[in-house]
């Protein structure tokens, strides 16, 4: 035990070890934060997406900090919702059982760039029949554009302004989210100032009409969004605990099992040893990744099933051979003979005398193979075999790659998960390499 | 001398038999997994039934037949079809062993979904068409990697503690990431931002007409994937070799050679490389195994038309014959590698040669 403590004190001499541990500690901190800030079920909901979860998020929006590096700022998303008391709503009884509702949704636009999309959501409560709504658009320069003479609204409806072909034709062929905001003097730029969307409708007296205008920007949150409008912060945060758990469990699982089995095999010798060696040889012929891909396609893609499979297929790996060689050497030591002489059981010899002797030299190996498994999860995800429900870095990479993020210039989408994977991998790797030097004195001297 | 040869031959023969058994077990496992333990046969049978029924119903000749006679006809035709394909037998044990026997004899049969670029459905042609591309890409990359890292490591081991040496050690953790990962970064830098090199694929879109132009175009498309493979293990390899050489160069006989005043080249060649030759050769052959692991993803990322991508596509199509074909070829290759490894060890390392008979307990 004292050896270990002095060893630990000596760690200060290895700055790369400190750096590696620091990286891992930071990621563990992020993981804990992620699990607390976004509970599991909420993370799954956010990652599943869908209109009611990510409907108000812009698609393929860069992170907000992107604006720090550009002179021409990208617009943020603006949401004006009359149900939340934004804008003005006036109601006037008409006497014949109906009332006139006027909703004005104002917003200030302060960017040169155009928004990505315009949508209007209407909510009509307590009415049986759909009502027609007149929708018009007021620009800062005083122009009034009638968007729709009579927009039929049921209990809950969405008007995709940007996809209104009739409106587009009236705006001389440009997309409404461009044409409605364009500066009359300079069509290539958006006009800054106060805009208004005005809705007018006659609804039954008992009914309630509300409207929500969403002006989709080109930046969102600290991580941006993907092609379905999902906030990338969810997988960025949740990717950390999943990557660490997968990597560490796989590394420790295979490492410890290989270790114990090779100890048993080399101590018992004879048939046990021979059978273990045979399995190792066969395992060498059956390559891991193709089997994982087949299982993934034909049976299950659950990350935990994959984890179990990875461990099972890695137990009898080539490490078995090196471990065995070490144990064969160790079992010749006189103290083992002494233990046998006083009648120690096989169990006692293996677990109390053999394993503790070799363990420190193999500790670095456990750490060094963690990144292999972290990247293995990403590899499976990139092949489309990621876990179907969990948000992981690999899944983001897969989305980014398959949706042409690099081709379309959405570099943040690819770089965020990639850099995190890289940093975490290098963290474990740094730690492993320096532990190697700490625990293997032969390396320390050279 | 004679006894050494007989020992070698005996050892070789037993190893060969054992490795063959290992390949058989490995391929049989693949057969079972790729057929979902026989489940896939039911899907195939249903598919055949549907196709047969459709063709019978569309045939005007049978239109007048009463329904039950029609049904009997369909059933009979389905039975014939199943029998023709050998699918009227149960999967365990009969059909799975037929698969195994055919695979081991390299009778790879006909693909179910994949087709070679030349239009053949024979698995053999599909694989033969893809093999050269895989070999070209990974052969180039691994040869480059092997010789570069070996000589850089030898160079660094002589300059132990220098700035370059420390830099290499510091960069060793970069090998935590696999090749495809660096591939994506390279695509980002050289294709997306700089627009210097192609995104992926084999040749330019209008295929160059001259042979030279074709070769140059392929070479241009090979730069990024090759670089990705090299980058993924470059520094770790150098680190491993360097440590290895350092350990060997502190042996007494090297010190003695140095004291005798031999040139550093002579010391490298005769006193360091010579005794380390067996592990070096072993490592070179083991590269084949890692290559197999890396190529599926790398070829998918770079759209490289090699075996790895064929394997991935075959799995997506449930194309069992192609899957088994690729696995069996690599099984043989790996077994041959391991066999060769044992041989190389036995020939190059006198300790193994002598110890082969004696030190077994």
Instruction: Name the beta content range of chain A.
Output: 15-25%
Low-confidence stretches of chain B: 356-361
Total count of strands of chain B:
0
SSE-based structural type of chain A = alpha+beta
Helix content bin of chain B: over 70%
Oligomeric state of the chains?
Answer: heterodimer
**N- to C-terminal distance of chain A:** 26 Å
Largest sheet composition of chain B: none
What gyration radius of chain A follows from the Cα positions, in whole Å?
32 Å
* Helical residue percent band of chain A: 40-55%
Number of helices of chain A: 17
The greatest inter-chain interface is formed by: A-B, 48 and 57 residues
What string, H for helix and E for strand, traces the elements of chain B in order?
A: HHHHHHHHHHHHH
Entry summary:
Chain A is of the alpha+beta class and 446 residues long.
Description:
The complex is a heterodimer of chains A (446) and B (361). With 446 residues, chain A is an alpha+beta fold. Chain A has 17 helices and nine strands. Chain A has helices at 2-9, 15-37, 40-48, 51-54, 165-170, 176-179, 233-268, 270-285, 288-298, 303-314, 319-330, 334-341, 346-385, 393-402, 405-408, 411-439, 441-445; strands at residues 78-81, 88-93, 98-109, 117-125, 131-138, 144-153, 156-160, 193-204, 208-216. In chain A, the strands form two sheets. A five-stranded antiparallel β-sheet of chain A has the order 2-3-8-5-6, with no helix packed on it. In chain A, strands 1-9-4-7 form a four-stranded antiparallel β-sheet, with no helix packed on it. In chain A, a hairpin with a 5-residue loop joins β5 and β6. The longest helix of chain A is centred in the last third of the chain and has 40 residues, at 346-385. Chain A starts with a helix and ends with a helix. By secondary structure, chain B is mainly alpha-helical. The longest helix of chain B is centred in the middle third of the chain and has 39 residues, at 211-249. Classes of the chains: A alpha+beta (446), B mainly alpha (361).
